[in-house]
Amino acid sequence: MAASFPLPVTQDLSTLRAKLQGLLQFLREALSISSAHTVDFYTESVWKQLVDLPPETVLGVLRRSAAEAEARSPEARLLVEAEMGSGIANFPQIFCETSQKLVSVEAFALAVRYYSVQNLGICTPFEQLLTALRGNQKQRTGENVKPDEFMNLKKSHEVQVMSELISSIADYCGIKQVIDLGSGKGYLSSFLSLKYGLKVYGIDSSNTNTHGAKERNRKLKKHWKVYHTRSKLDGNGLALKMAKERKVQDEIKYKVDIEGICNNSPANQGKMSTSDFLPDFSDSVISNIRTQMENLHVYSHREENLCFENAFSLIDLLPINAVEPTSLQTSKRNMSEANKERRKMISKSNESNIYSPLTSFITADSELHDIIKDLEDCLMVGLHTCGDLAPNTLRIFTSQPEIKGVCSVGCCYHLLSEEFENLHKESTQDKWGFPMCHYLKEERWCCGRNARMSACLALERVAVGQGLPTESLFYRAVLQDIIKECYGITKCDRHVGKIYSKSSSFLDYARKSLKKLGLDESKLPEKVIMDYYEKYKPRMNELEAFNMLKVVLAPCIETLILLDRLCYLKEQENIAWSALVKLFDPVKSPRCYAIIALKKQQ
């Protein structure tokens, strides 16, 4: 590593495993709520099977709990959590021991808050990490360009924050090459290259994405050059204005000095014009003027060569024969040659700081040498890497020596492959998306797709009960009962899709959905369809309350997945430092957690 400043202390493997054990103890009972599918809510009598409370009670407690959590100060929150001590062991009974039904929604809400990422203390503060990475060095700001000029606000926020972190890690490790896995449209890659001068390879499995990224990067470079030129012109205009003001002041000063010299000379006390005596200036006067010229030349360089070609020269004050013509020509020629060399250096620098989009399907066994011919010591990064790509990023990082650091933000948990999900099916796959760490493998832990889907809700960062699509879920659950009882179909591989938003009523929704599923909707009279609707309408609050339970529980599933990845890194002998960091504002970007790690020096 290029730097030797200590990074923030993180929790060790044994501490993380203890927290993982407590979380599993809670999830063994609570996972049935996350695993239930709302499509089967009425056909499978989900509420009756899993909850032993009235829906009004569940809704009231969860809404009250959310409001209290919002209003409670951080200090009060910590006090309550400290009183819990060892975690789940100190909680009141949440589920009935015999029926396994939920019996205390208050204890349920408390346990969910306790096992959130933030409360478990497994997160390293972002600002603390940045400070440690920079050490005594000043922040490298790169080009003064805001990413929201090139992308939407959400992506702008993500790219700006993550690129700042990656740049700091690269400086800390003394690295110039970055590999961006799942680079997609190339926003992060382009920004790292253009703003921070890093050499970036963006790898995506979609050739369409790669082609689009190349075209987008070309346009971005053009836009960037225009922006950069405009910024320079603004700076040059300011410098030119300052130079003109100095010129006026200097003209006055030199006229006063020259007239003073002329008036004090005994031989020239008669009436003479300035042009009469300038050709006969003494060597000392010309030397003095040349000194002033050199001072102005140095000053212009302190202005970082802004508008040097346009800067005012003191030669303009003198008649043609006051200074040897060869000196003036040499000065201009030297200045021109210096500017040419400076432009060549900038051009070469820009050529080395490039972004190269590549197309390749990445697995845990992918060899980067086969994809990138000039692979060197590098960082591997990924912004919202989908499904198995996030865990595979970590596996590639640990196995390939050129990769010195990793910064990965995952997403699409529902697309993760699970080793213990379908044990009855034969599979040749040997590396799975979940679990990764030894402890969960020994436990043969499985979340299931529905639970992983609920983890995508990012619900610890959404106000409970706000914006939940209860009616659309209700429509789909009632439709499922119609399909089961009227068509004799219990399982259907086809999906209804986004028909709800295109429907004017439940009747309209039902007919459109049945048609899309390939079922004869004309065999069902309007009355039959509406009878199902009226039958379940009084029980709509059950679905609303159950969905809210899934919403509240979702962060615990995400915590489990993130802890699994962090423990995996802690188990590797070649890793010097690893942490979980909350990178983004969750309001702007719900998938806000990054796994970051650095290797030991060899």
From TrEMBL:
A Pfam family recorded for this sequence: Methyltransf_32
PANTHER family: CGI-41 METHYLTRANSFERASE, METHYLTRANSFERASE-LIKE PROTEIN 25-RELATED
Keyword vocabulary terms for this entry: Acetylation
Record gene name: METTL25
Protein name: Methyltransferase like 25
Origin: domain of life: Eukaryota
Domain Methyltransferase: 154-234, 334-418
Natural source organism: Lynx canadensis
Coiled coil regions in record: none
